[in-house]
Amino acid sequence: MPAKEEILRLDRDHLWHPFTQASDYAERDPVVMVGGRGVRLFDADGRAYYDAISSWWTNTLGHAHPRLVAAAARQAAALEHVNFSGFTHPPAADLVAGLVEVLPPALSRYFFSDDGSTAVEAALKMAFQYWRNRGRAEKTRFIMVDHAYHGDTLGAVGVGGVDLFHRIYRPLTVESFRAPGPDCARCPHRRSRHTGDARDTGCALECFDAFEALLREKAPAAAALILEPLLQGAGGMLVHPPLFLQRARALASELDLLLILDEVATGFGRTGTLFAFEQAGVVTDLLCLSKGLTGGFMPLALTVATEEVFQSFYGDAASGRTFFHGHSYTANPVACAVGAEHLRVVRELGLPRSAALVLDHFHRRLKEFAEERWVSDIRHLGFVGAVDLAGPGGAPLDPAFRAGWRVYHEGLARGVVLRPLGDTLYWFLPLVVTREEVDAILDRSRESMRAVLDGAPR
Ligand SMILES: *Cc1c(COP(=O)(O)O)cnc(C)c1O
Question: CB within 6 Å of ligand 1 — which residues?
Fold first, then answer.
């Protein structure tokens, strides 16, 4: 391995990082990470950091879980890769065998790809072609909600509602219909000062009327409604009540819209149930999975479809019903082997339910942020918690001050990896986090926040 200085030189001269303005690193180096164990990461100088965002929401069982390390090594030695058309292999079957035991029987067809964005691309193409297959060629568009995030490839950007990321690429995408979504953090109808637990907002879902009106108007031209169930991640860690999802499901069925649930971030336990949709008791037509699928080890994704969607594609080769989509590394055997072993470990540990006491503790500790004068909203769902940073009286902070970005750097100095979304500070914890680790993470986060904001311009 090259020495740290050489790594930094190569990085500075040649690498281009995601979601990063390179000028932010003109005067400071990125951290060189060389190790991971459990909930912590280790840099080239041997310093430890709590991974409070689970390495971009992927990690579930901590870093370097021995069972996953072994599964990857075993499969790499047996068969590292083979194309997935005309061939199948044991790890894909093993992973699917586990998933059919935990997903609703209605979701019976599993299509592999490589990451969350490709899972969404596949779902969008499936939904579009489903209606063609059924002779409804006028249903070509998609309905998404404000603050939606479904990935960075063009199809996914086309159903994105986070203007900071998406606006510049709009000319490249097919326009989607954008519905007002549930936005509990800014909602005047909720019962308490903070959103808190969105399953308990005490509201009568007043926001649903505007959402429903848009769906009724646009559904005839639309193939599908796409939603992030219960938690909008990149849009600001916004949470909403399961009732919204229940009513959206019913409305989509009534209006002949397929429902695409994007559980790329919420899947595999993060919201306190194995999948977020379980909390609403609904079943979807298409389900997108990725981040937690391999516990954070390997890029892998799935688009899971109902038998009805799959059967609409069935026909002879000349029928025009083939799903023309695939990637070189579709169903990579090493990734599938890790995914299968990951699901086994999660189930053996009884996760996420076995973490109920730790979650209670996490939520209780989060509520203490209500005492902080720089916090305007607190919300949580399972292993995810967020606070919005604001000035006196809840006034937005000056964006030029970049409070969130400063808190990130203060956090690194205190040994905790945060990655605020604008001025929203959030935690996206692994399922194996302990009470002690929750305390260490939240204490360091609060110190970082105070260090930045006690010096903030008023
Ligand atoms: C991260 C994310 C994606 C995109 O996944 P990538 O693996 O980054 O392509 C899609 N949908 C949701 C809800 C996400 O959080």
Answer: 115-117, 120, 149-151, 228, 233-234, 262, 264-265, 290
